[in-house]
User: Which sequence fits this backbone?
């Protein structure tokens, strides 16, 4: 299994998926077709947990602005993490700018919905 | 317990479990969905407020910028008016009159005004800016040209005048010595001769002096007469190449003048020719300027100037005056006007054009002159005619000014429809009551011009 890197565009975040156990997404998320855009990432994460997961996996999410379908996708992504959290240690950092209320509230929503996941709100 | 039943129960239980799992998932999904919707709404509202705040900020900035530009334009217009007492409040009154005309032209649906509209604030602003700046090129026109009141007037090194006084003292000393020597002559004969010569000289000077004012057209025979007077000689005993700055000295030295020397009363010399510095013919042509450019920058020749047929300006000076529109256009075309003000250079630069290609600097014709440009042309002339703040001329009366406009309309220098609009709507009266002195305002027989 190989690392997967997707470069940043004006409307989509930079995505770095590394088999050394770090998953990171930084930027805005307004893809034209959200589910199509994130499909390679979702597939990679599934395969990672099935075949190559490290003892500890760190997920760093720093999404400044995102549309509602991205929001839905992040729920799906957290579902995927939740499915794997019993067998693997997963640390999630939801990073936001202290002035960005929307991002902060989104992080709070995720914590509320995924009680079993280890989600930290990290204010910059 | 019968087996089929327990199988059914098992099946039902299994279904119940799946059903529960599915409904739990569905409920979760619905809740999430609601959450996403609420959050999206909240985010949208937040974005909207942020955008509104930014819009307000941008609008305030835009307003500030517009005010800055407007005040800057007024400052330039004021500076042109302040530069020469000969322009008075011209640059600030032409916009006033132009606006009045534009508003009436906009209201009218007759003739050429049927398809004309100038109602938005931007369109009016474009015309106002153009009228405020129509003479901005005058900042480059030398004052001595703008204000040239007599034919021989120029920027002058008075060393030449001082030298002439020395010449007079020099001669007085010689005359005094001769008088003493010749005391034995017949006094009556000498006196008669001297009176005759003096009278002749005085009347000759009067002819030259009269011509200098340039108030009348000069016929060829008058010019001939002046040339004969000018050919009278006197002896210069003093060196006329000293006391001069580098540039004038160069011009005079190239004449190989000697001292003492025989000079004429009025003369054209090499020193009077100020050569034209570098001139970009290609640029001139590419910008559409068609006015003929004189060979020299200036010709200060005494004889040439005193023989100017009409007015006080030489060909070179007339071009220098006309060049102010060229400079206006060049200056305004350099400014990055936004789309809504893109016509400012066109409107401002056409106020000396006529409708038949005889104006300057582009020799435009009626179809090349949009209505706002024609409005400015008429406003420019009317303001100049009626202005009472020009020290060099008496202000004309309202009826006289309108009569002159009517001649210019007849010669197709000004637009007839605009002239009629100017009269029929009563703008001329309104403008007069605001800007003319009471003694200038007389009755105007509007009917004779309209019909």
Assistant:
């Amino acid at each position: 299994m190989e690392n997967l890197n997707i470069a940043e565009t004006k409307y989509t975040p930079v995505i770095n998926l590394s088999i050394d156990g770090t998953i990171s997404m930084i930027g805005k998320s307004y893809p034209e077709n959200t589910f199509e855009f994130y499909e390679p990432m979702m597939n990679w994460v599934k395969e990672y947990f099935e075949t190559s997961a490290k003892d500890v996996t760190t997920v760093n999410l720093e999404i400044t602005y995102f549309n509602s379908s991205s929001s839905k996708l992040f729920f799906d992504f957290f579902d995927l993490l939740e499915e794997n959290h019993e067998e693997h240690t997963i640390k999630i950092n939801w990073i936001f700018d202290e002035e960005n209320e929307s991002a902060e509230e989104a992080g709070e929503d995720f914590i509320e919905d995924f009680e079993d996941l280890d989600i930290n709100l990290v204010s910059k | 317990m019968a087996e089929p039943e327990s199988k059914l129960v098992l099946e039902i239980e299994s279904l119940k479990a799946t059903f529960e799992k599915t409904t739990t998932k569905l409920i979760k999904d619905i809740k999430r969905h609601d959450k996403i919707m609420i959050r999206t709404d909240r985010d949208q509202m937040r974005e909207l407020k942020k955008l509104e705040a930014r819009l307000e900020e941008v609008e305030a900035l835009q307003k500030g910028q517009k005010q800055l530009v407007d005040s800057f334009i007024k400052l330039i217009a004021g500076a042109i008016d302040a530069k020469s007492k000969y322009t008075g409040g011209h640059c600030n009154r032409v916009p006033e009159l132009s606006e009045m005309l534009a508003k009436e032209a906009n209201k009218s649906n007759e003739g050429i005004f049927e398809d004309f509209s100038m109602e938005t604030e931007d369109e009016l602003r474009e015309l106002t800016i153009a009228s405020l700046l129509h003479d901005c090129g005058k900042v480059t026109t030398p004052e001595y040209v703008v204000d040239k009141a007599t034919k021989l007037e120029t920027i002058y090194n008075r060393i030449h005048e001082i030298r002439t006084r020395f010449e007079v003292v020099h001669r007085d000393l010689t005359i005094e010595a001769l008088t003493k020597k010749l005391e034995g002559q017949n006094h009556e004969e000498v006196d008669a001769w001297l009176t005759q010569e003096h009278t002749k000289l005085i009347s000759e000077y009067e002819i030259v002096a009269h011509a200098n004012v340039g108030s009348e057209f000069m016929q060829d025979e008058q010019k001939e007469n002046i040339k004969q007077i000018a050919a009278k000689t006197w002896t210069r005993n003093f060196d006329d190449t000293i006391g001069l700055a580098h540039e004038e000295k160069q011009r005079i030295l190239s004449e190989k003048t000697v001292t003492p020397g025989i000079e004429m009363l009025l003369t054209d010399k090499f020193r009077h020719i100020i050569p034209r510095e570098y001139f970009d013919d290609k640029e001139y042509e590419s910008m559409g300027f068609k006015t003929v450019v004189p060979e020299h920058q200036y010709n200060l020749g005494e004889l040439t100037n005193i023989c100017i047929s009409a007015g006080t300006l030489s060909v070179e000076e007339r071009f220098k005056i006309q060049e102010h529109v060229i400079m206006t256009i060049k200056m305004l075309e350099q400014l990055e006007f936004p789309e809504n003000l893109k016509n400012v250079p066109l409107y401002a630069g056409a106020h000396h054009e006529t409708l038949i290609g005889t104006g300057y600097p582009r020799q435009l014709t009626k179809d090349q002159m949009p209505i706002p440009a024609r409005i400015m042309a008429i406003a420019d002339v009317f303001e100049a005619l009626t202005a009472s703040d020009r020290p060099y001329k008496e202000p004309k009366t309202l009826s006289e000014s309108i009569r002159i406009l009517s001649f210019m309309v007849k010669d197709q220098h000004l637009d007839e429809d605009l002239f009629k609009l100017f009269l029929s709507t009563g703008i001329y009266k309104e403008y007069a009551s605001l800007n003319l002195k009471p003694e200038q305002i007389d009755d105007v027989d509007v009917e004779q011009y309209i019909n």
Remarks:
- The first helix of chain B runs from residue 3 to 83.
- Chain B has three domains: 1-83, 89-137+314-450, 159-275.
- The longest strand of chain B covers residues 233-236.
